[in-house]
Each structure stands twice: as C-alpha cells, then as structure tokens.
Amino acid sequence: MKLVKLLANLGYGSRKQVQGMFREGLVTDAEGEVLYADDVVAHEAIRVEGEPLDPPQGLTLMLHKPRGYTCSTKDKGRLIYDLLPPRYRDRAPVLSSVGRLDRDTSGLLLMTDDGALLHRIVSPKSRLDKAYEVTLAEDLRGDEAARFASGTLLLESDDKPLLPAELEVRSPREAELVLHEGRYHQVRRMFAAVGNHVEALHRSRVGGLALGGLGEGQWRMLDAADLDTLFNVP
Ligand code: URA
Predict the structure, then answer these.
(1) pTM of the prediction?
(2) Is 90 noted as a catalytic residue in this protein?
(3) 187 lines ligand 1 (CB under 6 A)
C-alpha cells in the first residue's frame, strides 16, 4: 500500500493533509531518511515526526470503560474514543467496540478493527460468557437466581425467553451475574423483570479475559496470548 494511503487509513489526516506531511519531510525511516508518498517501506521502519507509526490493521485492545462514556464515534458528551489516542477514532477500517456497554456501565470493553475477530467474539459458537457485578437499589428477594437460571424468563418486548444465566449473591444488594448472550440493556432489564433496579453495573470479565490491574479509563493492546485467554472458555 502506498504510504500516503497507509497514513491516511491510520488516521494521520486526510490524503491531502498526509501529502502535506510528506512535503514537509515529517515522514522518515528509522534512520531519519525522508520518505516519499509512493515509497514502499516496512511498517515498523516508518516514523512520523520521529515517532513509530501506530499499529497496522489488526489492532485489538481492552479498555476499562468508566461510567459516563458512550460507546459511539459521534454522540454528544464523553465518548470511549476520548480515552484513546485521537487518531484511533479516524482509522479505516474503523476501530469499533465489540458490542456496547451502556453509558452508565463501567468495565471491560473490547475494541478491534478486525471484522472477522469481532464476529468470532460475538458469535454464539464461541460461547464467551460475560460476568457483571451488579449493585441494586432494593434488597434481593431470594428467587432471582432461580428465575434467571430457568431459561423461561421473558423480557418485555422480547419474543424469545432468555438463556439460563447464573446469579451469585454477594450481599443483599450486590451480586455477580454471568450471561451467555447479549441483549439490549440485558442486565438492567432482567432486574427490572424481578422488581428491582440496577444502581451500578460493572463488567468484570468477557470469556477468559478479565481487567486485571487495568485502572478506570486505561487501556492496553491485546496480543495473541490475550486472545487465547479470551477464547479459552472451560
Ligand atoms: N446489560 C446492561 O443492561 N447494560 C450493559 O451495559 C451491559 C449489559
């Protein structure tokens, strides 16, 4: 791929802006030799203003999403992209979240520009369960775990009952819920269906992958070993 297209695809600017960067001599190789728009150079040898180029396509990362951020490229208010290097919002192919977390949900969010990987993660065949820590407005009644595990709970405006889900009660108003599917506002709607209200919601795990020590608002790239961990579901 021509360098000018590569840099534009990585979000460094429009083609015109990137052409300008070449004219100004801002794009060099590792030795500082100026590169030209038509040069063909290995990705890892390219520097922009002396800095290594952003990762090529295949970028996959894990973000510890804080509450108050929306999973969108252009909503009003704070966006998950505000937590990443600014160029990541403008990459092509697009770097998108794998599914969504509500604005007021915190926790583990995967993002990738690899469409095949995204489909593999969300495919039911991969059987990647998701664990949520839930804080409730009302004390649990005691029948919720059985109702969630029943496989017969039908949420309002759905036409198919939910798959069985596991609820582990931690305290009268705190629990962990493990889901094997992902429906719109699922956790909040499940607790509404049993007469409660979710006050705080946090996703702690997707498949075999947990946040580890990643702090709120922080992110890190995932490598092949992380993806093995993600898909390694017992
Ligand atoms: N279920 C919800 O209700 N919200 C989320 O963000 C994720 C799962």
Answers:
(1) 0.94
(2) no
(3) yes
